[in-house]
Signal recognition particle protein
Amino acid sequence: LSERLGGVFDRLTRQGALSEADVATALREVRVALLEADVSLPVARDFIKAVTVKATGQAVTKSVTPGQQVVKIVHDELIRVLAGEGAPEALKIDNPPAAILMVGLQGSGKTTTTAKLAKRLKEKNGKRVLLASLDTNRPAAMEQLAILGGQIGVDSLPIVKGESAVQIAKRAKTQAAMGGYDILFLDTAGRLHIDEVLMDEVQAVRDIAQPRETLLVVDGLTGQDAVNVASEFDGKVGISGVVLTRMDGDGRGGAALSMRAVTGKPIRFVGLGEKMDAIEPFEPERVAGRILGMGDIVALVEKARETFEAEQAERMMKRFQKGLFNMNDLRTQLEQMMKMGGMQGLMGMMPGMGKMAKQAETAGFDDRMLRRQIALIGSMTKKERANPDLLQASRKKRIAAGAGLEVQELNRLLKQHKQMADVMKKMGKGGGMKQMIRQMM
Ligand code: GDP
Ligand code: MG
């Protein structure tokens, strides 16, 4: 796919901003990538539409093609859509015993995921967990959960033959409360397709159990059907989150995007194998890269941005070596400082500047000041920025007023500029400058 994209991108022209044509060409390929990753058709279409609006008119980073840039925008947008609010592993499990209802199609991995999560909550969060299987449909389903419970050292509700799912849920609730458990997992019966009878059963169980979380377990290899499964379960039962299983396989995980788009519910965990430890909190970055299958391009665009900044550093260094340091240079410096976590952070990084950082702090030299200084430089004319010696009283008044500040503050900025220019000159002669500017960028 990357090869195909490469071909398309080479044909794209380079210009300052992404044109509609650039975006459309690149997005045609992205659309194919989404469909190949099993993202459902309407979801892919809507997603592309949203990205088109975002991408058109954006500035193109030097040394990448417009197409590559579009892919980066797509990638970032994918991550935004995939990420829910809050940490993925933050399940609502206060007020013990908190019931967690596990729902999904047959074979999606509910029972396995139940045991994996139980193990995790026990080991990571020190919770006392009780497992209960409500699967009265499949022979040996209850035993399966009990056996897994035994393996991970977690209690399971004793099996009583002949009970209905609702009866088991009631007994499990009582047992969890009496036994002092923190968490009760209710592993429901699967269904091959969305099936009214079983849906009614899950609803009845839900009403009895009053779960704090209802997790929909979906096979990550599910394709176009993911949308139906998610919207049916969410509509009929009401889910609080999704677990995506079999992400250890070849699937590209497009189901994740489909389900996020349709339900808006967070994806909590991904299953990565059959073993009890093979579960991890959902990472949108990883799944986004996988859906697009273009991780290399994303890395390339990031690299290009870095290179661009390094080039800028080089240019500045050459200026300093010639003893040139005007207000434009100072502004670049100040803006970089803001980006790097402010004055204190920056000076702390420079050799021999630790003491100065302390002094600056006591003198009230902080980020607010950086912002005011950038504003002052902004209200100078082009000529004044290039040659600060021009600044006499009347010009100073105008500039200060333009930034809504006192002339006094402008004077301080000018003094600082002069000091810095002197230092730059000296250091420029002495060498070692390159290293320092690199650091500052
Ligand atoms: P249920 O019918 O929804 O309860 O599904 P099960 O938990 O019984 O799982 C069905 C099969 O899928 C079992 O063989 C599991 O070992 C397997 N399975 C579950 N989760 C994963 C996963 O994340 N990766 C892989 N490779 N297999 C899984
Ligand atoms: Mg099961």
Remarks:
- Residues 1-15, 348-354 have pLDDT under 50 and may be disordered.
- Residues 104, 106-112, 190, 217, 245-246, 248, 271-274, 278 surround guanosine-5'-diphosphate (ligand 1) (CB under 6 Å).
- The radius of gyration is 30 Å.
- Strands lie at 98-104, 129-133, 155-156, 183-187, 213-219, 241-245, 267-271, 279-281.
